[in-house]
Design brief:
Blueprint (H helix, E strand, L loop, with lengths): L1 E5 L7 H4 L1 H9 L4 E5 L11 E4 L25 E5 L1 H9 L3 E15 L10 E12 L4 E7 L4 E6 L4 E4 L3 H4 L1 H8 L2
Parallel strand pairs: 1-2, 1-3, 3-4, 4-9
Antiparallel strand pairs: 5-6, 5-7, 7-8, 8-9
Length: 178
């Protein structure tokens, strides 16, 4: 079973950021459960975990990073999308910086990984980026070196700052495959 975690403060935002991810998982014939990040406790009963993104001005999750302390102890595969990538990186000592990116962006793959393997266009909708990613490999960047995807060096944790539910659904499909 896949655990899908909402980081949305506003229930209506889940229609845009959680429901499309849920539809991708449902279409893959995988069982899933949706939980809000404030309600997540024990995660080891799940096969894989997806931490969904949220609206551009919704930063409430940053006030509750302690709710993600389970990331330090789990060995489950985790995919963090936008705010989910920020949460994963911040849990492992990265720093948040302001860097707004909205719209289509070309990214270049820097390292082989299970999510994607080529240069392609992605849809960005975020106001934050990350630095001090010492515990992560950089998987993809833009032409101006904006980090777009990461993988933890020792865990199966992937982070993507862009929104695959808009244009790159195969990334989520690749993650949930065995």
């Amino acid at each position: 079973m896949i655990l899908i975690i909402s980081t949305c403060q506003d229930k209506l935002s889940e229609e845009e950021f959680v429901k499309p991810i849920t539809n991708i998982v449902k279409n893959s014939k995988k069982d899933y459960k949706i939980k809000h990040f404030m309600d997540v406790g024990y995660v080891d009963d799940y096969e894989k975990i997806i931490i969904c993104g949220t609206a551009l001005k919704d930063n409430e999750y940053l006030n509750h990073l302690n709710k993600f302390s389970w990331l330090k102890n789990t060995n489950k595969e985790v995919l963090g999308i936008c705010s989910g990538m920020q949460i994963i990186a911040l849990t492992f000592n990265a720093k948040l910086i302001q860097q707004k990116e909205i719209g289509m962006t070309q990214i270049t793959t820097k390292s082989r990984n299970k999510l994607f393997s080529k240069e392609f266009e992605v849809y960005n909708l975020h106001q934050n980026s990350l630095t001090d990613l010492d515990e992560f490999d950089i998987l993809a960047t833009t032409e101006n070196d904006s980090v777009q995807a990461i993988k933890h060096k020792h865990k199966q944790f992937y982070g993507i700052i862009f929104h695959p539910e808009v244009r790159n659904e195969t990334i989520v499909e690749n993650f949930i495959l065995p």
